[in-house]
From TrEMBL:
This is HAUS augmin-like complex subunit 7. It comes from Cyprinus carpio. One of its GO terms (biological process) is microtubule organizing center organization. One of its GO terms (molecular function) is microtubule minus-end binding. The lineage of its organism: Eukaryota, Metazoa, Chordata, Craniata, Vertebrata. InterPro entries: Haus7-like.
């Protein structure tokens, strides 16, 4: 791992922690390159958002229901515009 930035090393630590905690969103991902892990965890994407939601809901389970409600209201808004 020589030459990796601090951000890449921290990304690897977070990724390894998510795997050890059984995060289903990283299950089956076998990322070995720090660049790939950093991109997964630090670049804006729906997958990153879902990982963040999983982390928050794991810490505070009541947030899981709030995330579901916000998603259903978003779907309703989209459907009402079509």
């Amino acid at each position: 791992m020589a030459g990796n930035s601090t951000e890449q090393l921290l990304s690897m630590r977070v990724y390894n922690s998510l795997q050890s905690l059984g995060c289903p969103l990283v299950d089956g991902l076998y990322l070995r390159e720090p660049d790939s892990v950093q991109e997964l965890l630090c670049s804006p994407s729906l997958h990153r958002t879902d990982i963040l939601k999983w982390i928050c809901a794991s810490i505070c389970p009541s947030l899981k229901e709030k995330f579901k409600l916000s998603l259903s209201s978003l779907v309703q808004k989209i459907l009402s515009k079509t």
